[in-house]
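Practice problem: predict the structure.
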Amino acid sequence: MPKKRSGGGLSPTQQAAKFLGVSVLAGAVLAGIALPAVGALGLVAKGSVESFDELPANLKTPPLSSDYTMYLDERDGRQVIVCQVGKTTLLYDARAIDDLHAMLRQRGDWVDLGSADEQKPAKDGTVEAWGRSEDNPVGGWYGLKKGLRGRFANYVPPVLEQLGGVEVEHKARGNRMRAA
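Answer:
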């Protein structure tokens, strides 16, 4: 006849309390390991918005044909990316940095940029189409200035490239990007 295990002399209530304590301790250890690992998945994107001050004074569009500047600002209580191209000022929702990086990681391959003005349709499956799609995390345009909401794929990808975490092609036409 097998020996019965005694329970160490603990009452059922004490055993339940001991089990609960061990469970809480195990959960805390797991959280200490898992949460930093999960947080690291978005580290490049989170660090990106905070690293805007480290951007070079002049950025170049993907074909390396035009100079522009970008910086973070707050407008109407909302954090925005200000893009200065000559005398023209474009505004993009600051979430674009994190959201675009997440989309690229999810797709896992090269994505055509497909840059287009607001008045022109964007080619399906491109970064430009995603930047104005109802299916993206903001449910529409990342561009905030009516009439100048397009060209998302022309100005935002080089910022992500400078901040790290993505690769952008620099050909005369037909450029693509992907998460690194």
